[in-house]
């Protein structure tokens, strides 16, 4: 079998068109222009590129985009007071502080300071709790993107055996909640799991979120499984020339594609969905802040 390649880039483009339509509706019917503020501390080149593409896509769907660049040595108190100002600004419906922040800044203090009503990353305890019990609100961007791709591929996820590899607060744990809400049987495997290949071989749905290049081998994939690769790892690619690199996922893509029914590529799979879901969450928070019901096609 050779797997269908799930085109996350195309899915994200289609999602952004739906988002743009919701922006138009909020503007024309309610006089609301959703606004997303992105805060970046320091000048890490990878982070810069990534933040620019967020700002560009935010503007393209018709939202207001606010970008705040702070020097790498900014005082923690200064960052926290910027967040407080964004919390109070009625033009801002979403706040994202690009992670990681420099070592002298406590990320937990940053997250605690963000108003949960504007927490489009779904990092605050209040919103993590809402996802767990199924209340409306923003949903972690990467897991939401994975869920949308899975529903599109499989229709109902009910009764599927889903194995998540990785237990981070960012991906593994929120993914577990979302799959459970969709009636999967969920296993969360991690670095201490015994017989990982056997655990993965039982999966109808594999979510790879470990952050180790090509760790999940092709012969671990059950024939017909759907594989979602969350990993984005930059590795050396001497075959492309001296000093060149390329992006690979957490799954050995070519070998896994021999067994899977469908698989996401890296790049062009989950990554573009993460950014589109950030915009989707900004529609959700802008709606809730204004007492409106958030659109059901943009959330879990
Ligand atoms: N507060 C916060 N929220 C985040 O959501 C957040 C963050 N901080 N810090 C950094 C990580 C990383 N992240 C990515 C999203 C999309 C791609 C993406 O679109 N990747 C392209 C490839 C891009 C390339 O070529 O480098 C792809 O997979 O096709 C990558 C990385 C969000 N993050």
From TrEMBL:
Task: Provide the gene name from the record.
Answer: folD
Organismal lineage: Bacteria, Pseudomonadati, Pseudomonadota, Alphaproteobacteria, Hyphomicrobiales
Job of this protein: Catalyzes the oxidation of 5,10-methylenetetrahydrofolate to 5,10-methenyltetrahydrofolate and then the hydrolysis of 5,10-methenyltetrahydrofolate to 10-formyltetrahydrofolate.
Q: Which organism is it from?
A: Devosia rhizoryzae
- Pfam hit, one: THF_DHG_CYH
Top-level taxon? Bacteria
Q: Where is the Tetrahydrofolate dehydrogenase/cyclohydrolase NAD(P)-binding domain?
A: 140-287
* The keyword Cell wall biogenesis/degradation appears for this protein: no
Assembly description: Homodimer.
Family per record: Belongs to the tetrahydrofolate dehydrogenase/cyclohydrolase family.
Q: Which UniProt keywords apply?
A: Amino-acid biosynthesis, Histidine biosynthesis, Hydrolase, Methionine biosynthesis, Multifunctional enzyme, NADP, One-carbon metabolism, Oxidoreductase, Purine biosynthesis
Q: Which reaction does it catalyse?
A: (6R)-5,10-methylene-5,6,7,8-tetrahydrofolate + NADP(+) = (6R)-5,10-methenyltetrahydrofolate + NADPH; (6R)-5,10-methenyltetrahydrofolate + H2O = (6R)-10-formyltetrahydrofolate + H(+)
HAMAP family on file: THF_DHG_CYH
Q: Does the keyword Magnesium apply?
A: no
Specify which residues bind NADP(+) according to the UniProt entry for this protein: 166-168, 232
User: In what pathway does it function?
Assistant: One-carbon metabolism; tetrahydrofolate interconversion
Q: Name one GO molecular function term.
A: methenyltetrahydrofolate cyclohydrolase activity
Domain (Tetrahydrofolate dehydrogenase/cyclohydrolase catalytic): give its ranges.
6-121
Q: Which InterPro entries match?
A: Aminoacid_DH-like_N_sf, NAD(P)-bd_dom_sf, THF_DH/CycHdrlase, THF_DH/CycHdrlase_cat_dom, THF_DH/CycHdrlase_CS, THF_DH/CycHdrlase_NAD-bd_dom
EC numbers: 1.5.1.5, 3.5.4.9
* Coiled-coil boundaries: none
| Record protein name field | Bifunctional protein FolD
């Amino acid at each position: 079998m050779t797997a269908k390649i799930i085109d996350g880039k195309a899915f994200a483009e289609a999602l952004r068109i739906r988002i743009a339509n919701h922006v138009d509706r909020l503007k024309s019917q309610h006089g609301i222009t959703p606004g997303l503020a992105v805060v970046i501390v320091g000048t890490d080149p990878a982070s810069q590129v990534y933040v620019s593409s967020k700002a560009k896509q935010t503007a393209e769907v018709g939202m207001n985009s606010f970008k705040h660049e702070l020097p790498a040595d900014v005082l923690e108190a200064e960052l926290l007071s910027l967040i407080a100002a964004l919390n109070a600004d009625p033009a801002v419906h979403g706040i994202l502080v690009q992670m990681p922040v420099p070592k002298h800044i406590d990320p937990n203090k940053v997250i605690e300071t963000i108003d949960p009503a504007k927490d489009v990353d779904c990092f605050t305890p209040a919103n993590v709790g809402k996802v767990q019990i199924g209340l409306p609100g923003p949903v972690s961007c990467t897991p939401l993107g994975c869920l949308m791709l899975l529903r599109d591929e499989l229709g109902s996820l009910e009764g599927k055996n889903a194995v998540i590899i990785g237990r981070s607060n960012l991906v593994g744990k929120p993914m577990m909640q979302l799959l459970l809400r969709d009636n999967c049987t969920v296993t969360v495997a991690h670095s201490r799991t015994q017989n990982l290949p056997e655990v993965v071989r039982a999966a109808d749905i594999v979510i790879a979120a470990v952050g180790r290049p090509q760790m999940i081998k092709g012969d671990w994939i059950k024939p017909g499984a759907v594989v979602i690769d969350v990993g984005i790892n930059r590795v050396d690619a001497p075959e492309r020339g001296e000093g060149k690199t390329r992006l690979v996922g957490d799954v050995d893509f070519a070998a896994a594609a021999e067994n899977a029914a469908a698989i996401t590529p890296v790049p062009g799979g989950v990554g573009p969905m993460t950014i589109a879901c950030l915009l989707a969450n900004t529609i959700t928070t802008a709606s809730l802040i204004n007492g409106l019901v958030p659109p059901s096609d943009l959330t879990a």
